[in-house]
Write a structure and sequence with these properties.
The chain is of the alpha+beta class. Strands 1, 2, 3, 4, 5, 6, 7, 8, 9, 12, 13 and 14 form a twelve-stranded mixed sheet that branches. It has a six-stranded mixed barrel with strand order 17-18-23-20-22-21. A hairpin with a 2-residue loop joins strand 10 and strand 11. Helix 5 (96-125) crosses helix 15 (389-425) and helix 18 (484-519) runs antiparallel to helix 24 (745-779). It is elongated, with a radius of gyration of 37 Å. The two termini are 66 Å apart.
Length: 876
């Protein structure tokens, strides 16, 4: 027991005092052992390892030597690690150019990776802010894997009454409304919701109460929930807001609760005001426009819920027939419904930044290999003095890990900045605004740095420890120069860098090609000197068609009379990427099979001046007139629609059934107009226009075309609208040129990001080949001097160096081209009018990459051609 306590005490003292005495004793012992080993090797002709073993026996045997120093070894690794770190830092400081370049390269790779990881963590990995979010589903009507739409009141009420797999289900709708409180009307987006919507999500107000089932009944007092931001902005605080009354579209609502701090988005819908949604009993199966969310019962699977909803769909057809008998109520995990294709977009960024990180690691590994060859004699001397392989590995790897940790520190700062840049310039993705650099991101950066450090130092260590020590001791420093094996490994690193850079460059070039083509697409209207004003009339005072039509009958002439206004018109949609309604139809002369899915198209109501205001040409037929009413419904169709369904040019006069209403009078096509993009510039130009003569929408866009700069007439247009009704809030005027530009934001941001990664990848690859050839020129300086002394021309020397570098670049480009052909297929869904394996683009990026490689090869080759042969030979 006493011996054990003494041993513990010695180890504790060694730990506290840093094992200084043990290190001194150990060093003294090692010195005597090595001297004895050298004597034995010299006199007996034994190998260094055999001589060392006999020397240990001479000093009392291996076991006795180990026993004498076992206590010190128990904690000695801590002191040795600290010593290794100090030695590594000291050595790196003595080579500032190498150290700085390695840290910068690693910091860029780690920083970009950390920023993208933070985005992935916030968007994909973090749970939704609702309890047990894995049980939340959004329910759609669906008739194919790619075609789904929102629900009707009949659908929702059937689910609410019959779905036993759901513990709660609720519906919501987003509307543009006028909210009036203490400071007059304000135009904003409201989220009308039933009580089950909040129960399903598990969201409870922090003050007051939630919307309850009794509030859902039509005719019950109107209530609303508000966000804390709205409560503070409007009433000075959350406590003051509860019990207050606000006007939402002219209808009084009592505020019964305030949502938790920071909550202004629920299930992907943004709103500061959440009025109760009171659903009247339906008269028809449609219209479809309800956002329905449900919470599955604990233990219930998505497949079981899907089967139950499919059975409800079949039962619904008996009460509420639909033209399409294949449509089914289908649940999708809410998380997937909110994220959409964000996972695919982030996957592209992860792939790009991963390749850049690998290129950075290969670049630094190549630098470390050069540095390691210069340390060969040091490694040999340490080995002769008794350093074990494990000790040498730790010593050498520590230096690369120190470099990587320094890169991680700088990379975390770069990652924080890069994440903010990603939020501003990156693709529009849900939940990205909530991304921040947290402890998980820092841990990710540290893990990446440690892995990079181990990878960077692994091969140089293996190369050094695998070489024979005898030549180094006999020939001195000359053996420190890299041999063919080292040059081959550095060449392999260069090949890998170019092979990794080409796919990133190819992806960026394909996106750029796609974006350029997308910019050239004609939106179908002239956006110059055209502005749009969104006008949402309050439902409290504009409930009847007559009041809405009267407002516009007064407003439009006043707007057209404004000096500088050329024309004005109204319509539901805001091209080129905003339409409100998609309707199904059936051609009377070409009906679909009974029970089959009918074709659909964007279907929008427009005023008679809409086409003139937007500059949409009339192709055939006539435009709308005042006699076009609901008794004899008419529509205008786009050229693309007409060519799709009547390629023989006979669309005028054709009749169709709208929305599956077989009892309604058929709709007649009276005009074919120019194509306008409503489903995005890359989408179809199919469109159907109906004259807004009855069932007037309360929310419409007013389009105003001016003779000069629109800014001169905007204030007068606002005054004209306010003169009709001063209590209607008006949103900011949207210049249509800016709106068209904003519709390209998603492809533009993705192209910019991937282009940035491509530039970094190409630059790193160029630096890699430049460094390799620069080192080659330095190592072969005497050889080059001899060649030039024997008559080699400058051109021959340049050609020799350039051919060596370009051979690696071409090999890397060939491998990269194979990878690009396989990898760019994942870009197909985000490309427009260009194939994922477009040969022109791939050839162009290959030529570009090889051109960069040639420049990077020519610079050190030019330096080699300027070597003075006499000076080079004299120095050697």
């Amino acid at each position: 027991m006493r011996q054990w306590l003494n041993r513990v005490a010695r180890r504790a003292r060694a730990l506290v005092h840093g094992s200084a005495l043990d290190r001194d004793v150990d060093a003294e012992m090692r010195l005597h052992v090595e001297l004895e080993a050298e004597e034995i090797a010299r006199t007996q002709g034994l190998t260094p390892e055999e001589a060392r073993r006999q020397a240990l026996v001479a000093f009392g045997g291996v076991e006795r030597y180990k026993e004498a120093h076992r206590d010190a070894r128990g904690v000695r690794w801590i002191g040795e690690l600290a010593q290794d770190v100090r030695y590594a830092v000291r050595g790196l400081l003595h080579a500032p150019a190498f150290s700085l370049s390695a840290v910068v390269v690693l910091a860029l790779g780690i920083g970009a990776s950390t920023a993208v990881f933070s985005a992935v963590d916030a968007v994909l990995l973090t749970h939704l802010p609702y309890p047990h979010d894995e049980r939340l589903v959004r329910i759609y009507e669906q008739n194919s894997p790619t075609n789904r739409w929102t629900l009707s009141v009949a659908d929702f009420q059937a689910i609410e009454a019959r779905a036993h797999s759901l513990s709660a289900v609720g519906a919501a709708q987003q509307r543009d409304v006028a909210v009036s409180a203490r400071h007059g009307p304000e135009q904003m987006r409201a989220g009308y919701a039933t009580s089950g919507f909040f129960r399903a999500l598990g969201v409870q107000p922090t003050l007051g109460r939630s919307i309850e089932p009794r509030d859902d009944r039509p005719g019950a007092p109107r209530v609303a929930l508000v966000s804390q931001a709205f409560a503070v902005r409007t009433f000075g605080g959350a406590t003051s807001a509860v019990g207050q009354s606000i006007l939402v579209d002219g209808v009084a609502h009592a505020i019964v609760g305030v949502l938790p701090r920071g909550v202004s988005e629920l299930a992907g819908m943004h709103a500061d005001v959440w009025p109760v949604l009171q659903l009247e009993p339906p008269r028809f199966r449609g219209p479809f426009g309800l956002f329905v969310v449900g919470r599955m019962v604990e233990g219930m699977t998505l497949a079981a819920t899907q089967r139950e909803l499919a059975a409800i769909s079949v039962a619904l057809l008996k009460t509420w027939p639909m033209p399409d008998h294949t449509a089914r109520l289908t649940p999708h995990l809410l998380r997937e419904a909110i994220l959409g294709n964000a996972g695919h977009t982030l996957g592209l960024l992860v792939a790009a930044v991963g390749l850049v990180l690998l290129i950075a690691v290969a670049n630094v590994a190549s630098l470390m290999l050069v540095r390691a060859t210069g340390r060969w004699r040091e490694v040999v001397l340490r080995t002769v003095l008794g350093a074990t392989r494990g000790r040498l590995v730790r010593l050498l790897v520590t230096e690369s890990v120190v470099l990587a940790v320094a890169g991680a520190v700088a990379g975390i700062a770069i990652g924080a900045f890069g994440l903010e840049v990603l939020k501003v310039t990156g693709p529009n993705m849900p939940r990205l605004d909530g991304a921040h650099l947290d402890a998980r991101a820092v841990a990710f950066a540290v893990v990446v740095a440690l892995l990079a450090g181990i990878i960077v130092g692994a091969y140089p260590v293996a190369l050094l420890l695998g070489r024979d020590a005898a030549p180094a001791l006999r020939e001195g420093d000359r053996t420190a120069s890299a041999g063919r094996r080292t040059h081959a490994i550095r060449g392999a690193f260069v090949v890998a860098e170019f092979a990794l850079a080409l796919p990133v460059l190819a992806g960026a070039a394909l996106l750029l090609n796609s974006f350029v083509r997308l910019q050239r697409v004609d939106p179908g209207f002239d956006p110059t000197r055209l502005v749009a004003v969104h006008v949402a009339l309050p439902s409290g005072r504009y409930r009847a068609d007559s009041t809405i039509s009267t407002y516009w009958a007064r407003a439009l002439p006043l707007v057209r009379a404004v000096p500088g206004v050329v024309d004005a018109g109204i319509g539901e949609a805001l091209p080129p990427a905003d339409w409100w309604n998609t309707d199904n139809f059936d051609l009377i002369d070409r009906p679909v099979s009974p029970g089959s899915a009918q074709p659909t198209s964007p279907w929008m109501k427009v005023g008679r001046g809409y086409f003139a205001a937007l500059g949409i040409p009339l192709v055939a037929g006539r435009l709308f007139t005042p006699v076009d009413t609901g008794a004899q419904p008419v529509v205008a169709v786009s050229r693309a629609w007409a060519e799709h369904y009547y390629p023989d040019g006979t669309a005028i006069g054709r009749k169709l059934i709208e929305g599956g209403c077989t009892t309604c009078p058929p709709v007649t096509v009276v005009a074919v107009v120019g194509d306008v993009k409503y489903q995005g510039l890359s989408g179809s130009a199919d469109a159907v226009y109906a004259p807004v003569t009855e069932a007037w929408p309360r929310a419409l866009n007013l389009f105003v075309r001016t003779a000069g700069p629109p800014a001169r007439a905007v204030d007068r247009v606002r005054s004209a609208l306010r003169s009709v009704d001063p209590d209607i809030p008006l949103r900011d005027v949207v210049p249509m040129e800016d709106h068209v530009y904003e519709t390209l934001a998603q492809p533009r941001h993705l192209t910019t990001l991937l282009g940035g990664f491509a530039i970094a990848a190409v630059a790193l690859a160029a630096v890699g080949i430049f460094g390799m050839l620069s080192y080659t020129v330095s190592a072969r300086r005497r050889e080059i001097g001899v060649r030039m002394a024997l008559g080699a021309s400058h051109g021959a020397v340049i050609g020799m160096i350039v051919r060596r570098g370009m051979a690696h670049a071409v090999a890397g480009a060939v491998l990269g081209l194979v990878v690009a052909l396989l990898g760019t297929r994942f870009l197909a869904s985000v490309l427009f009018d260009v194939g994922a394996t477009d040969p022109v683009t791939l050839v162009a990026v290959t030529v570009l990459l090889l051109g960069v490689a040639f420049v990077a090869c020519w610079l050190p080759a030019r330096h080699a051609a300027q070597i003075d042969p006499v000076e080079a030979i004299r120095v050697e």
